[in-house]
Amino acid sequence: MAESDTPTTRKLLPDEIHRAVKPGTALLRLQTTHSREGVLDGAWWPRSRDVATELPELIRALTTYLGPITRVGLDVDAWEEVPTRVVVDDRVVHLDSFPVGDDTVLITRGDNDHFALLAVPPDTAPDAARDAMARAVDAGNVTQAAEILVAHPPEPVPGHRESA
Asked: 123 and 164 in contact (C-beta within 8 Å)?
């Protein structure tokens, strides 16, 4: 049997990896289909509510797969402070903030190509976050972000304090 014929087993990352991930590291899942028929195109699990720390790495990761990002729309109520723009690798990315409370991040590539990502709250327990992210990237998903998070509510993470 050739080495390429050896069956591989797929393992989930242990919970410890999620606790070890520091703010500014993008935990991201994107749909792997070109149809884009689902309500959401992916999911993002930031490690804090600090836009200046979290967003640059998300933009870098998305740029790798989608090309240059021009705008990001955020729910202003979900973040500590939302500036009007960030500079990532010498590119200006404009930020739009709305008090919509819909648990999504809207990404704009080019002039009109939009991607909607579920924004999993930073204090969500690893199992619930993995489940919510998997549901968000399911190609047949027709469930809105807020409904996914209601089905997988944040649970207190040991040692994590929510800032007021």
From this structure: no
Distance CA 40, CA 29 (A): 11
92 CB contacts (<8 Å, ≥6 apart)?
85, 86
Task: Indicate the pTM of the whole model.
Answer: 0.72
pLDDT tens for residues 118-161?
899 988 888 888 888 888 888 777 788 888 887 655 555 455 44
Amino acid at 20: A
Please calculate the CA angle 86-92-97 and round it to the nearest 5 degrees: 50
141 alpha carbon, distance to own chain's centre = 16
pLDDT at position 155: 54
Nearest to 119 by CA among 19, 32, 51, 35: 51
Dist. CA 59–CA 88, nearest whole Å: 7
Determine the Cα–Cα distance for residues 83 and 61; give it in Å rounded to an integer.
20
